[in-house]
Design goal:
- The complex is a heterodimer.
- Chain A is α+β, with helices and mostly antiparallel strands.
- Helices cover 25% and strands 25% of the residues of chain A.
- Chain B is globular and about 50 Å long.
- In chain B, 33% of the residues lie in helices and 33% in strands.
- In chain B, strand 7 and strand 8 form a beta hairpin.
- In chain B, helix 2 packs antiparallel against helix 3 and helix 3 crosses helix 4.
- Classes of the chains: A alpha+beta, B alpha+beta.
- Chain B: Converts molybdopterin precursor Z into molybdopterin. This requires the incorporation of two sulfur atoms into precursor Z to generate a dithiolene group. The sulfur is provided by MoaD.
Chain lengths: 84, 158
């Protein structure tokens, strides 16, 4: 099981802040994960519709969509950041 | 690297307000090499009276880790003698402080550059998100990231 956490409008659209999911073996990169999640229901489809703007972090570090998520304890999905 | 170098790197994510003078004094205490200190404070605007408050959401754990990575890079790149970054979360009314960055160095250019670098990276990489609450009682939605912030960050690429 992998812990997924969501923030800002990604969290609002999916309807929860975190969950544990059993990811299939073909999900190897951050991009694979986004495409897999979009098959799980319309809330995910709505949240991840504009896939290229979604940022992904693995174990508290930013990753590009082409990077691996193997060995991840916690994966976060969120929109572009607006702090400061 | 700052770890073990004795250069103070202070990073805090907190709900409560901060005291700039006290933080500056604490960062610079007993560091005789410091000749310049730049402090930057980011405040909540009222957007011409339309904004009642900002709600700052953050990713606990990663927010601190990411800002620490940025601060440590700034120490190394600009040979800073101390750096502090304090970012608030929760609800903030116009006029309230959101973020504080203090950069200390032997001379002014490094201190200005250090503070500017940390802010430019923090805006685009630290996991915080602002939601607007309008003065008319409605929720204004999530603040959108600005291209200008990405350009500000890009100018630091070596």
């Amino acid at each position: 099981m992998t812990k997924l956490v969501y923030f800002a409008w990604v969290r609002e659209r999916i309807g929860r802040g975190e969950e544990e999911l059993d990811l299939p073996g073909h999900v190897k990169t951050a991009g694979d994960l986004l495409r897999h999640l979009k098959t799980l229901g319309e809330e995910y489809e709505m949240a991840l519709e504009h896939e290229n703007v979604i940022r992904v972090a693995v174990n508290h570090e930013h990753v590009e969509h082409g990077e691996t998520i193997e060995g991840a304890r916690e994966i976060a999905l969120f929109p572009p950041m607006t702090g400061g | 690297m700052p770890a073990g170098s004795g250069i103070p790197v202070v990073v805090r994510i907190q709900r409560e307000d901060f005291d700039t003078a006290a933080e500056t004094a604490s960062l610079c205490a007993q560091h005789g090499r410091i000749g310049a200190v730049v402090t930057f404070t980011g405040l909540c605007r009222d957007e011409d009276g339309t904004l009642a408050a900002l709600e700052l959401e953050h990713y606990p754990g990663m927010a601190e880790a990411e800002i620490r990575r940025i601060c440590e890079e700034a120490v190394e790149r600009f040979s800073l003698e101390g750096i502090a970054a304090i970012h608030r979360f929760g609800r903030m009314a116009p006029g309230e402080s959101i973020v504080l960055v203090i950069a200390a160095a032997p001379h002014r250019h490094a201190a200005f550059d250090g503070a500017s670098f940390v802010m430019d990276y923090l805006k685009t990489s630290a996991p915080f998100w602002k939601k607007e609450h309008r003065a008319d009682g409605s929720t204004g939605g999530w603040v959108e990231a600005k291209d200008a912030d990405d350009r500000a960050r890009a100018k630091w690429r070596k």
